[in-house]
Amino acid sequence: MKSSNKEEEKQYQIVCPNCKSELILDPEEIEKREFTCTECGKKSTFFENELTEVGKEEEESEDISESLPAKNLKFKKLYIIIGIIIIAAAAFYFYADSSDSITFINKKGKAEKHIKAGSDLLSSQMNNQNPDMQAVQNALAEFTTALNFQPDNTDALMSKASILANTGKFAEAITDLDKLIGLNQSIPDAYFYRALCKLQSGDLANSIADFDKTIELSPDNLSAIFYKSNTKYLLKDFEGAKKDLSQLIDANPKIPNGYALRGLCDVELGNKKAGCEDFYKAKELGFQEADSLIKQNCK
């Protein structure tokens, strides 16, 4: 088999199947598809597809190596782009978060400023037997403004509700107290004021649960115990009222109202003797209506 000049210039190599040596074949061996290994001396035959052109792998290798820097550059550019995106996103979220934080701090600061102004106004009227109602209204306005800046400020809600309750605006006070209790279930005064507002609004039965919660959170709140017993008396639960009043008197034996009301419970339960004993005790402690109760029930 004759080869062209171009083909003759090419050299082919093969791997000996016996000793694994790499051998360069001459044209005659290629044409016969047979060669004798110069290393092990054994003769072998081969198929054309087992031949490898000498230098082809190196060229391919060179081509690949030349292309690597370009590929690396592309990947490097991609990494830079991804890095820029990540940094930009982080900067955006940081700025947004910082902006929100600054806004929150500013609003909180303004709210606290108005809460302090309202508290100062109330403090100025604390010892006045006849408080300046304009000052009280100004305090209410301060707390309302504070809530405009920070609607969930529990201090402002509590102060605003207490003013509303003390000025007879029970429904408005209950609305604020409902929100306050929704935000924080551990403020005794929130339940106490809501109970008083319900009591003043005629919702006696539902006020008891709030008095109970007040006492649970603040066992020393004797006013809550007294009002609770008074509510039970109005609901004609004389046994329950008497039990609460005994708890009150045990905590503080010098409360004349407690004896007077417990005496009335005993009278309603048919125990006038015990009732009269409490009326006399109330008189001893200075209860002004004790004589009237004694005259009506203790003959």
What topology does this entry show?
Elements: H1 5-9, E1 12-15, E2 22-25, H2 27-32, E3 34-36, E4 43-45, E5 52-53, H3 56-124, H4 133-149, H5 154-166, H6 170-183, H7 188-200, H8 204-217, H9 222-234, H10 238-251, H11 256-268, H12 272-284, H13 290-297
Shape: elongated
SSE pattern, N- to C-terminal: HEEHEEEHHHHHHHHHHH
What is the helix content? Answer: over 70%
Query: What structural category do the secondary elements indicate?
Result: mainly alpha
Strand order of the largest sheet: 2-1-5
Q: Could you give the distance between the termini?
A: 151 Å
**Major sheet:** 3 strands, antiparallel
Low-pLDDT runs: 1-8, 57-71
Number of strands: 5
Please compute the radius of gyration using only Cα atoms. Answer: 49 Å
**How many H/I helical runs?**
13
Q: What is the strand content?
A: 5-15%
The residue-averaged pLDDT reads 81
Provide a descriptive summary of the structure in words.
By secondary structure, this protein is mainly α. It has a domain at 1-54. 71% of the residues lie in helices and 5% in strands. It contains 13 helices and five strands. The chain has helices at 5-9, 27-32, 56-124, 133-149, 154-166, 170-183, 188-200, 204-217, 222-234, 238-251, 256-268, 272-284, 290-297; strands spanning 12-15, 22-25, 34-36, 43-45, 52-53. A three-stranded antiparallel sheet has the order 2-1-5. It has a two-stranded antiparallel ribbon with strand order 3-4. A hairpin with a 6-residue loop joins β1 (12-15) and β2. α5 runs parallel beside α7 (188-200), α9 runs antiparallel to α10 and α10 (238-251) runs antiparallel to α11 (256-268). The longest helix is centred in the N-terminal third of the chain and has 69 residues, at 56-124. The radius of gyration is 49 Å and the shape is elongated. The protein starts with a helix and ends with a helix. Residues 1-8 and 57-71 have low confidence and may be disordered.
